[in-house]
């Protein structure tokens, strides 16, 4: 799976979770860029990402994800 | 909304909660309720998903979410804000993470016992305090731990957490069984249902302090929503069942009565037999069963009469519609005949085309997706159509009473003269002043009757007791009615306050089961007799309009009262009691006690 594929699927998840079709993700997107993205939504995103890519995050993986780029890196690593 | 109906897709609900909510809010006619959610661990998504399920039940919640893990402090030492919020419901979200003192292998048996008593005392104090806010309280029991120090022996060793949790849950169950307005949310069963390995999620706990796996939150929220809708009287009341391949295997018209699969001889028969047994048990909870099947009636009935292995019999059904009319018409008629809303019906049919037609033409009837007979019970059970929160003697007898009503309706249609029909019922009654023995039933009747209720005044049991004591200032009456089909019990109550030579009717209620039986005349005859004994010359009365009591708007003038005020929402009356008052009831043999 390419980074572009992962980006496309992540964008769809973000659009679903925040019910906002206008969301566009970049490597640098952080919680500050999306109004409703708080720590509670963070877990919702992670659960949705796990289901979508059929992967399982570990505690150490997700404790300090700085931005969307880090999320994509992590998914890329776990999807293999 | 179909995405929220069992079996739902948890991940989908979690992901799409915002758009689901938007869609639900587009509907109208919500009941608004205030719900305080008290936190023993993170609430976040639980509140949001609970809101979806409640909206789907037509309940619009206003939430007050407590501070993280502050349920004890906020309930026990309220700063006034919880009381000011005036919740209708309080949900206390605790889990085994909130058990302060779990046993350890080093404990003596006495130490474990002391821990158990301490935990239970705390639990009980919290529930008692929650009740003091005047709300309905919903509280979890405890789920099993995710590891066991003793392995299987954890269930046996007093130091085992499984043993401890089992005992604690039993103490909680016994306690709640004695309480009104407290409902247990059985997360012990729920976590077993989804599997403990799926329920416990340590990442979610360490990172976000969720006491259960986030993707199981829809299951938890659904369980809470089912309790709330049940407490608000939004349960289903009746099941409408297809026959061929729903209550037995095969098609009775083609295969013949001996050819259908029922009974425990072969696997297919077993699945239908078990489903019929389940339905038979439902009737014990006051749920009414009906048949709606495309069949010849005489042949269809043989499936029950000629196959003794069938747990259900023809008598277990209120309405038995086996004909070739469209099912939507039969179902609408069933609702009319037993006099309940179409939205109280659940329709079970193995045929997807029939299900779809009923969904299209009767959108308020619930039509679960059922696949094969071994799934039928699960489809009904998990959906919680009949979630029980309270259960009275009346509920247990509901089937019988509705069946009697159906017989009365059939009898009525064979008479052309209504009085002849009433006489044919061989009615007898009993009427007398309120007494302590009937106090509880009288209070219940006063507080739940909405149609034949002129003033919709509600009385606490203590107020009813006061009226029993005071025989000079009040005329009170309870009345029972029996007919050839059965005993209706106490179905009417009356209270008038006497001042000088006038009696004012403060309250008059009658159950809709006994409308139009001249029972109301029998009561009026009794009251006028009492007035004469007490030297009362006039009776004043009123009708205060509500959404439900329009049916009796013109009752008083029909029995000779004079109208003194007549508006859309209120009418007032006076009756000068004639010296030669002629009794109005000529069909019920009343006994005055």
**Tally of individual helices of chain A:** 4
CATH structural architecture of chain A: Orthogonal Bundle
Give the second-level CATH assignment, the architecture of the largest domain in chain B.
3-Layer(aba) Sandwich
Beta-strand proportion of chain B: 15-25%
For the biggest sheet of chain A, the summary is: none
Per CATH, the superfamily of chain A is ACP-like
Number of domains of chain A: 1
Q: Over the alpha carbons, how many angstroms does the gyration radius of chain B reach? A: 28 Å
- The total count of strands of chain A amounts to 0
Percent in strands of chain A: under 5%
Distance between the termini of chain B: 54 Å
The coarse overall form of chain B would be globular
Low-confidence stretches of chain A: none
| CATH-defined fold name of chain A | Non-ribosomal Peptide Synthetase Peptidyl Carrier Protein, Chain A
Provide keyphrases for this structure.
heterodimer, A: 80 residues, mainly alpha, Non-ribosomal Peptide Synthetase Peptidyl Carrier Protein, Chain A, B: 593 residues, alpha/beta, Rossmann fold, Aminopeptidase, 3 domains, 9-stranded mixed sheet, 5-stranded parallel sheet, 19% strand
Description:
The complex is a heterodimer of chains A (80) and B (593). Chain A has 80 residues and is mainly alpha-helical. Helix content of chain A is 57%, strand content 0%. Chain A has a single domain, classed as Non-ribosomal Peptide Synthetase Peptidyl Carrier Protein, Chain A, CATH 1.10.1200. Chain A contains four helices and no strands. In chain A, helix 1 crosses helix 2 and helix 1 packs across helix 4. Chain B contains 23 helices and 18 strands. The mean pLDDT of chain B is 93. Chain B is α/β, with parallel strands linked by helices. The chains are: A mainly alpha (80), B alpha/beta (593). At the A-B interface, helix 1 and helix 2 of A face helix 1, helix 2 and helix 10 of B.
């Amino acid at each position: 799976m390419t980074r572009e594929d992962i980006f496309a699927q992540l964008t769809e998840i973000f659009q679903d979770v925040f019910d906002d079709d206008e969301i566009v993700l970049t490597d640098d997107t952080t919680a500050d860029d999306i109004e409703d993205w708080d720590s509670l939504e963070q877990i919702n995103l992670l659960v949705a990402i796990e289901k979508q890519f059929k992967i399982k995050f570990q505690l150490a993986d997700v404790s300090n994800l700085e931005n969307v780029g880090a999320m994509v890196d992590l998914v890329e690593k776990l999807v293999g | 909304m179909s995405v929220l109906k069992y079996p739902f897709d948890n991940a989908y609900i979690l992901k799409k909660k915002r758009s689901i909510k938007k869609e639900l809010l587009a509907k109208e006619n919500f009941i608004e309720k205030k719900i305080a959610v008290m936190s023993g661990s993170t609430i976040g998504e639980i509140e949001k998903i609970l809101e979806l399920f409640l909206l789907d039940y037509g309940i619009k919640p206003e939430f007050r979410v407590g501070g993280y893990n502050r349920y004890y402090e906020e309930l026990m030492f309220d700063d006034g804000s919880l009381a000011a919020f005036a919740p209708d419901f309080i949900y206390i979200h605790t889990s085994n993470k909130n058990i302060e003192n779990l046993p350890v292998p080093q404990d003596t048996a006495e130490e474990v016992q002391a821990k158990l008593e301490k935990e239970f005392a705390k639990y009980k104090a919290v529930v008692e305090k929650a009740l003091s806010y005047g709300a309905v309280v919903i509280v979890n029991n405890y789920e099993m731990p995710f590891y066991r120090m003793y392995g299987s022996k954890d269930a046996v060793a007093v130091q085992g957490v499984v043993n401890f949790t089992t005992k604690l849950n039993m103490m909680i169950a016994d306690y709640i069984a004695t309480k009104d307005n407290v409902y247990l949310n059985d997360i012990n069963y729920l976590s077993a249902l989804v599997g403990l390995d799926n329920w416990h999620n340590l990442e979610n706990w360490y990172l976000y302090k969720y006491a259960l796996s986030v993707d199981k939150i829809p299951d938890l929220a659904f369980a809470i929503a089912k309790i709330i809708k049940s407490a608000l009287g939004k349960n289903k009341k009746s099941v409408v069942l297809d026959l061929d391949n729903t209550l037995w295997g095969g098609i009775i018209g083609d295969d013949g009565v001996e050819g259908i699969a029922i009974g425990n001889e072969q696997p297919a028969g077993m699945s239908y037999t078990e489903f019929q047994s389940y339905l038979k048990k439902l009737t014990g909870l006051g749920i009414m069963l009906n048949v709606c099947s495309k069949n010849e009636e005489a042949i269809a009935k043989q499936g029950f009469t000629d196959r003794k292995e069938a747990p259900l019999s023809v008598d277990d059904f209120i309405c038995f519609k086996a004909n070739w009319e469209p099912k939507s018409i039969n179902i609408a008629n069933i609702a009319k005949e037993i006099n309940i809303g179409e939205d109280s019906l659940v329709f079970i049919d193995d045929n997807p085309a029939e299900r779809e037609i009923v969904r299209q033409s009767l959108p308020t009837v619930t039509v679960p997706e059922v696949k094969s007979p071994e799934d039928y019970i699960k489809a009904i059970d998990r959906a919680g159509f009949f979630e029980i929160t309270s259960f009275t003697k009346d509920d247990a007898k509901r089937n019988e009473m509705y069946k009697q009503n159906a017989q009365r309706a059939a009898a009525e249609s064979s008479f052309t003269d209504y009085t002849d029909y009433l006489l044919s019922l061989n009615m007898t009654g009993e009427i007398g002043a309120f007494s302590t023995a009937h106090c509880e039933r009288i209070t219940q009747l006063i507080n739940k009757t909405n149609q034949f209720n002129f003033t919709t005044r509600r009385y606490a049991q203590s107020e009813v007791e006061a009226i029993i004591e005071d025989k000079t200032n009040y005329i009170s009456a309870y009345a029972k009615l029996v007919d050839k089909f059965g005993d209706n019990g106490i179905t009417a109550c009356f209270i008038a306050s006497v001042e000088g030579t006038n009696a004012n009717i403060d309250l008059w209620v009658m159950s809709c089961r006994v409308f139009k039986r001249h029972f109301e005349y029998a009561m009026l005859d009794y009251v006028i007799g009492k007035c004469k004994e007490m030297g009362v010359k006039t009776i004043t009365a009123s009708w205060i309009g509500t959404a439900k009591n329009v049916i009796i708007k013109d009752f008083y003038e029909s029995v000779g009262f004079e109208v003194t005020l007549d508006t859309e929402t209120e009418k007032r009356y006076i009756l000068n009691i004639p010296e030669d008052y002629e009794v109005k009831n000529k069909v019920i043999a009343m006994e005055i006690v």
